[in-house]
Amino acid sequence: MGAVMNHLTPSLEDALVEVRNAPASSSIVVICEHASAHIPSEFGNLGLADRHIESHVVWDPGAMVMASHLVAQRYYKPFWAAGSDIAANKNNLTMVTVHSFTPFFHGKPREVEIGVLHDRDARLADALLSNAKALDQCDVRRNEPCGPADGVTNALGKDAIPSGHLNVMLQVRNDIVAEESAQVAMARNLSDWLVRALAKLQSGTCTI
Asked: pTM to 2 decimals?
């Protein structure tokens, strides 16, 4: 079960959110907030050049495929209103939001490759970071390249934290998932990492 911004097919512009597998019994929700670069026709191109529309200015390259494969492996991805409805009707929900970020920001390189972001509820982030060696070829950091002070944890604060749901935002540097094969591989690694983190929390063995 899940939902995603439906910006992939111009003919479906009237359906802004795609909900998948709504009757699913699992408690885990995956959100992909910047799924594609499609701009509804009524807005034209918003004055942007094509090179900007295809860049991180408009969307998170790679995030949609990673989120989709997480869904396929037992996670779900709602977006905003649909996500709120799902969260309101799920017990023991775990919310995971998926984003990508640029390797450079204002001309400065970002060495972090995977960011584990959290707001005031750090339970799932702590469990993931306690086993960051599961992604031993990646530079994994807490609340980088941005964090709650930057206002990026909106979905977590809106739909997960008030209800006490486990939650985390995962940010992946987009140059390491530039190809679809890399996106699928990353989704598989993230899925395994999340499963282990949740098992640690359930067993009460998480330390950091």
From this structure: 0.64
Largest CA distance in the chain: 52
| Res. 159: pLDDT tops 80 | no
pLDDT in tens, 87-134: 566 667 898 989 999 999 989 999 999 999 999 999 999 999 999 988
Using the structure block, give the residue that is written with the tokens 């495929």: 65
Six-digit token string for 46: 């918003």
CB 114 within 8 A of CB 68: no
d(CA 150, CA 156) in angstroms, rounded, equals 14
Where would I find the H helices in 78-179?
81-88, 123-129, 154-155
User: What's 90's DSSP letter?
Assistant: -
What is the chain's length?
208
Dist. CA 189–CA 134, nearest whole Å? 8
Considering only CA atoms, which of 168, 25, 155 is closest in space to residue 92? Answer: 25
Domains and CATH numbers, the chain: 2-203 (3.40.630.40)
